[in-house]
Amino acid sequence: MEQDKKIRVGITHGDINGVGYEVLLKALSDERITELCTPVIYGSAKIANYHRKGMELPEFKLFQIDSPDDAAPDQVNIVNVVGEDCKIDIGQPTEAAGKAALAALERAVSDLRDGLIDVLVTAPINKHTIHSEEFNFPGHTEYLQERIGEGRQAMMIMCAEGLRVALVTIHDPLSEVAKNLSSKSITDKIMAFNRSLIEDFGIHGPRIAVLALNPHAGDAGVIGTEESEIIAPAIAEANKRRVLAFGPYPADGFFGSGAYRKFDGVLAMYHDQGLIPFKVLAGETGVNFTAGLPYVRTSPDHGTAYDIAGQGKADEQSMREAIYTAIDIFRNRLREAEATANPLRRQSYDKGNDRLPAEKPER
């Protein structure tokens, strides 16, 4: 079956002055990775070697190729997307690093769209240095929605073992969150989250917890009315569509009491409401997944970490999990597509009744 083939995982190098290359090199040095997939890095062999030598990491071969079509299935492959003169300033946000990050992202997305790679994993970027006429977006999620969304809405889902947190608003300023919420937008997110839990994570009949916006879920209108006027109606509408959504729950008590363990997914209203508890609970294993798009993209749940860049201190587990998660989601989508490709034709028939036929009178 197609799901048994070796998956080509495209990986962008992210910000060359951060910990991207460190976590990449550490994660890909594990020989089990090339048993599971064919990695294709979009970056620079020269820059990769600079980072490896600077941190005295073990040496391993990078197979330089011009296109993923040339990728060696049992090697770590690299497509050079920046010039040999690209300047590296470890731990510093620079314009050159932003351009290098964008060059890798644009080439990888183009190859993903053309079917040359199967999934995309992105190393962390600096949103300020990458910002340009070509990248006028708050982050990867919005960029990918524009470039390869095909009209679909992207949804950020942070996932780790036993915990999946999705967001209604993503990179909105906190001062604008409340006015950007509507019952329709929340219902749409619940429905999209439900679909992703089924299609991407293989969970059928998922239970979704929806968080409140205000402290104490508004205290019956004393602190705010968004819960009763916007969020509760959205949950009710999702229930009408046979989605198991519950809430709204006050975020502090919900996470503090461990109630999240009773649900397959948690829908937060805004970025920090969902991501702060997620990162505390997930530790080094968290993964950022862009759901809702025709293509699979994941990334580690951390940033460029300039403060420890080049010191060999970065933990590669989140990058490793991002690769594993992309592979799992790709296979789950194949299985779901295969299972639903030829549904049984619905048939109508006379169910009859429980009445016995009338007895004929004796003659």
> In which order are the strands of the major sheet placed?
3-4-2-1-5-12-11-6-7-10-8-9
Cα Rg: 24 Å
Number of strands: 12
Query: Distance N terminus to C terminus?
Result: 69 Å
Give the helix level as a range of percent.
25-40%
- Write down the overall mean pLDDT: 91
What fraction strand? 15-25%
Number of helices: 10
Please state the structural category.
alpha/beta
How would you describe this structure in keywords?
alpha/beta; 363 residues; single chain; twelve-stranded mixed sheet; 17% strand; 10 helices
Write the layout of secondary structure elements.
Elements: E1 7-12, H1 20-28, H2 32-36, E2 37-43, H3 45-54, E3 62-65, E4 76-80, H4 95-113, E5 119-122, H5 140-148, E6 155-160, E7 163-167, H6 183-199, E8 207-211, H7 226-240, E9 244-249, H8 251-256, E10 265-268, H9 271-282, E11 287-291, E12 296-300, H10 317-340
Parallel strand pairs: 1-2, 1-5, 2-4, 3-4, 5-12, 7-10, 8-9, 8-10
Antiparallel strand pairs: 6-7, 6-11, 11-12
Helix pairs in contact: 1-10, 6-7
